[in-house]
Amino acid sequence: MPIYDSLGTSYSLTRRPDPRIAAQIRNALGDVSDVVNVGAGTGSYEPSETILAIEPSHAMISQRPPGAAPAVRAVAEQLPLRDRSVDAVMAVLTIHHWTDTVAGLSELRRVARRRIVLLTWDQSVFRERFWLVRDYLPQTAALDDKRAIGIDDLVELLGGARVEPVPVPHDCTDGFGAAYWRRPRAYLDPQVRAGISMLAQTDPDVLAPGLAVLADDLATGRWQDRYTDLLALDSIDVGYRLLVSDL
Fold first, then answer.
1. pTM of the prediction?
2. Which of 135-138's residues contact partners 24+ apart within 8 Å by CB, and which partners?
3. How does pLDDT run across 100-151, given as a tens digit for each residue?
4. pLDDT tens digits, residue range 8-42?
5. Which of 75, 74, 119 minimizes the C-alpha distance to 93?
6. Domain boundaries in the chain?
7. How far separated are the first and last CA of the chain, in Å rounded?
8. What is the CATH number of domain 4-246?
9. Distance separating alpha carbons of residues 71 and 55, to the nearest angstrom
10. In this structure, what is the dihedral angle of CA atoms 55, 176, 202, 149, given to the nearest 10 degrees?
């Protein structure tokens, strides 16, 4: 069973596309005429040129909004598309869920005529810069240490790519891992955590001690004192990266 058939039932409640990140993705896609979104989830960041969404989870497909591109239940490793059948293929925060990254990227290269756009993250930067993982929940890094693919490796597998940092705004509307970096109380909300795979897939008993410390630090003001510099920032770079590969 696809993992998001169990984890993604309320995904659309907290995972809404952020317009600034959407603009960066749209700019990276360029003047393409048709796009396929692989690992499409509920349809976040799909431009108007999207003609098809590929998603293995029925729960995610059921949350796609009216008017979204048609969706097919399939996996990245076996795309139901002909060779060079679309201008561009996009994949947003999904490759860490694929069972075979090499096969999946090979499929993206097979079906795209002009461009591949991936949104992912640099795990080493993420672990070092994101306070929640570094200082409160280091156990969650273990999962992503196993499944995250290095940026240099991804560039090589794509046959070359431009790498762009993706800053996370302080009021980011897409509730992915570091979206609430300046709104720490959100991480105490089970609904928020349910939309973040590194938290949703970690045993709640493992999370509990770190979350208790975070709650106490927020109540006493220690968090605010410790991260004063963060509170003055509008956005931060914690390792999210856009890879743009021209074919």
1. 0.93
2. 136/210, 136/211, 136/213, 136/214, 137/199, 137/202, 137/207, 137/210, 137/211, 138/210
3. 999 999 999 999 999 999 999 999 999 999 999 999 999 999 888 888 889 9
4. 456 667 889 999 999 999 999 999 999 999 999 99
5. 119
6. 4-246
7. 33
8. 3.40.50.150
9. 7
10. 70
